[in-house]
Amino acid sequence: MDSEVALLKALAEPTRLRLAVLLALNGETCVCQLAEALAAPQFRVSRHLGILRACGLVEARREGTWMHYRLASPSTKFAKCLQDCFGDCL
């Protein structure tokens, strides 16, 4: 139950929830595009993505100087249900 609590705590912040929804809808996305979509500074978006990475919701890939993020493969049924909801409900 601890991993579910950590995941919900991470998603309780509106910016992180928006990032999760953007990644669900768009797939792998560059941090610069996410920052532009949210009209937020890149450093702030990167910080929020780091929190989502720490709880296992997103994965990152470096391409040159850019980081690309995508939703991680869900490790639990709960995570799968949440990820489905990002694309379908939000």
Describe the structure.
- This protein has 90 residues and is an alpha+beta fold.
- Helices cover 62% and strands 16% of the residues.
- It is built from five helices and three strands; from the N terminus they run H-H-E-H-H-E-E-H.
- Strands 1-3-2 form a three-stranded antiparallel β-sheet.
- The mean pLDDT is 92.
Structure summarized in a few sentences:
With about 90 residues, this protein is an alpha+beta fold.
What attributes characterize this protein structure?
globular, three-stranded antiparallel sheet, alpha+beta, 62% helix, 3 strands
Helix-strand blueprint:
Layout: H1 2-11, H2 14-26, E1 29-30, H3 31-38, H4 42-54, E2 58-63, E3 66-71, H5 77-88
Antiparallel strand pairs: 1-3, 2-3
Question: Regarding quaternary structure, how should these chains be classified?
Answer: single chain
SSE string, helices as H and strands as E: HHEHHEEH
Characterize the main sheet: 3 strands, antiparallel
Q: What integer is the average pLDDT?
A: 92
Strands in their spatial order, largest beta sheet? 1-3-2
- Derived from helix and strand composition plus strand pairing, the structural class reads alpha+beta
Radius of gyration: 12 Å
Overall morphology: globular
User: Helix count, per DSSP?
Assistant: 5
Note the beta-strand portion.
15-25%
> What is the helix fraction of residues, given as a range?
55-70%
Distance between the termini: 24 Å
Low-confidence stretches: none
Number of strands: 3
